[in-house]
Amino acid sequence: MRVSEAIPTLTVDAATLEHVVRWSAAIDDYTPIHFDPEAAAARGMAGPVVNGPWKAALLATMLESWLDGRGTLARLDCRYRRPDLVGAALTFGGTVTAVTAATGHDVVECDVWVAGADGDKTVTGTATVHLRPASTDEETLATERLKAAVRLGQEAGRFTYEVTAGDIARFRAAVGDPGPDTVAPLTFFAALDPVERRDMLLDAEVLDEIPFAKTGGGNAFNEVEYERPIRAGDVITVVTSYTEVYERDGGSGRLLFRVRTNDLLDAAGDLVARTRMGHVMAYDLKRRVKA
Amino acid sequence: MRDVEVGDRLPALVKVVTTEQLVRYAGAANDYARIHYDHAHARERGFPGVIVHGLLKAAFLGQLVTEWCGPDAWVRRFSVQYRRNDFPAQPITCHGRVTATAADSVELELWTEDPERQVTTKGTATVVFGPSA
């Protein structure tokens, strides 16, 4: 689910008196303006009006059918802006406004609304949905097996590398960056990544067994935050943890993302830098390559 | 603190990569993914030839920043996202622009362009003026 994604609308061609009477009976609320034309007229209404909470209940139904078992409705707040007359055509809709990750699920915030016959919003509200992680059947890429292989959320490994002036000089020569050999250039963290170095390949076997045609892949993003520059003579211990394994649709197929962080510690154990390395692989889920 | 204003552009840095440079970078960065030096493998993967390491483009953007800010400043944060591939012999132009200034630091927006002026890498950096720890 993505921000600004529209929730499929639910329409009621006409809110009937039967809807209203069934609702009144179900919640034991017999306020007569919902079924008695005279009582409604006495309150200045052109006819019986639909119960606000019934409209809220249909917003909940719309959200549930959109979720289709993928999650649960955690919160629904509605404001009843205008009455709808019995007999009116009603449209129920909504939009995703935010998606954030939480432990075990995503939190999806939505705006929801009810539009009356003339298109005016008669109810506006907000909803919170808890979305379960993608199912782990064989069609998916971000499987529990892959997450276990990379020890998602735990330390995956630690390696110690000495940074020499020669290493820095070689790196600078390769980039064509004529800076000093005493201070490592900004992206030197790349040379200290246990996965790029293939000192650690926790997921190779699981990835190799993915039964779909690979259509692309590579680094997606890199981020670094330094406490201080890396310098010649540093002995850096890199502690790697995978923080995210997830999949989503992309232009070149179904995309599998694996994101890892490296904490770069100096010989005294002080943090020198923290990096985030994002890698993506694309697959065509319609093309099977293995049994 | 130097005289820097929002909107200031960094002097552009142009890099033309050779396959030899990709091999040198593979060695210096310990990144031996075949797509960067094995022509036949790159063709099999659907590319016209070997592609430039994303992290080498990031290194170019890093050079752009550190040459601009000079030795009396250091880069605290740096991030890059890879949007499109670049290829040897096709000039990669590195650009930067100041997006915010504070008492002792500036925020930069960074990007690389290919010969068709398509953005192939996007990034940001925080430069801190003064000595680092």
TrEMBL record, chain A:
Domain FAS1-like dehydratase: 153-274
Positions of the MaoC-like domain: 19-103
Top-level lineage group: Bacteria
Coiled-coil residues: none
Family stated for the protein in its record: Belongs to the enoyl-CoA hydratase/isomerase family.
Stated name of the protein: MaoC-like domain-containing protein
Native source species: Phytohabitans flavus
Taxon lineage: Bacteria, Bacillati, Actinomycetota, Actinomycetes, Micromonosporales
Automatic annotation (TrEMBL), chain B:
InterPro entries according to UniProt: HotDog_dom_sf, MaoC-like_dom
Domain MaoC-like: 16-83
One Pfam family cited in the UniProt record for this chain: MaoC_dehydratas
PANTHER family documented for this protein: (3R)-HYDROXYACYL-ACP DEHYDRATASE SUBUNIT HADB (PTHR43841:SF3), 3-HYDROXYACYL-THIOESTER DEHYDRATASE HTDX-RELATED (PTHR43841)
Stated family: Belongs to the enoyl-CoA hydratase/isomerase family.
Protein name as it appears in the record: MaoC-like domain-containing protein
